[in-house]
Design goal:
mainly alpha, 4 helices, 72% helix
Length: 76
């Protein structure tokens, strides 16, 4: 399981964006990180969000590489 450290400010931003961001995919990414912050198991997070664990790891990789800004990027 990956260890990710969050600042208080990041938690506030993740919380806000998980509700108010205009794109549903970005909201789901933010929710995934919030659940990670709450120390849920990856399988639990994937089940709650109805995504694969592979997709979940991709969200975590995005965050670890580029922070919240990377979670907001949509490439399609």
């Amino acid at each position: 399981m990956r260890k990710i450290e969050f600042t208080r400010e990041e938690i506030k931003q993740l919380s806000y964006e998980s509700i108010y961001h205009e794109h549903h995919m970005v909201r789901r990414r933010m929710q995934a990180l919030l659940l990670k912050f709450q120390d849920l198991l990856h399988q639990e997070i994937a089940d709650i969000l109805d995504i694969s664990e592979t997709m979940l790891r991709e969200y975590f990789d995005l965050y670890m590489e580029g922070g919240i800004a990377a979670l907001k990027e949509l490439h399609y």
